[in-house]
Amino acid sequence: MIVYYYTNIIKFSILYLIFNIMNYRLTQEVIQLLEEFDKDNEKSYYTTDINGFQQWISDKAAATSSNKEEPYWEGKESGRSPESAISTLLVHLNRYAKNYSKSAISDSGFVSQEDFIYLINLKAFGQMTKMELIKRNIHDKPVGMLIITRLLKNGWIEQRESDTDRRSKLINITEKGKEALDQQMTKIRKATDIVAGNLTHNEKMELIRILNKLDRFHYPIFSKNIDSKDLIKTVYEEYTFKN
Fold first, then answer.
1. Residue 32 has pLDDT above 70, yes or no
2. Deepest of 39, 61, 108, 173, by most Cβ within 10 A of its Cβ?
3. In terms of CATH architecture, what is 83-197?
4. Assessment of whether the complete model's pTM goes beyond 0.85
5. Rounded Cα distance, 188 and 101, in Å
6. Which residues contact 186 (CB under 8 A, 6 or more apart)?
């Protein structure tokens, strides 16, 4: 009888210990989820109650599910391809972004968003040749040179001969250029925040991953300077569907 009694005590103790370990782990996981929810919800996309938390959990699960349902896109029912929808949506988003950028520089000496993007690149990465800067911004040479000429005229950048290649000019941002950039950075940051819209942190990370993949596909093609009349034929035959 005594053995039976102590055996039951031991069993109960083990079960109690297991329950507390599981309960502790569950509590830790819930706390981690709440911290992640608080980070994702900095801009109050969800209500700060149990309903908002539940919706966030649902969205998070949908974003990570491997069995996602296909989204709807305009014209899908009539046979429009997903590639067509992606191309159109990227064009639309570029136009939305330009609209907000235009607003951000409306009271400045900047003519276009490319002006401050060129300056941001020079400030972030240091001096580079004209062609390096133009290529970094995915521009053709004539367009890029017009922007650089405009920046030189305003005194926002300066140029000097390269020590290694006399044919090349190295350009750098000036103090005047940094000041012009700093004066607009608050508005520029707000514009970029707006472009990201109501995406959660997880959705932003997933979008960056996808856009990086597309950029890694397209940039090497762009760098080859393939003639426009041959571009589609060359890319379609040599690059398409290579991951």
1. yes
2. 173
3. Orthogonal Bundle (1.10)
4. no
5. 7
6. none
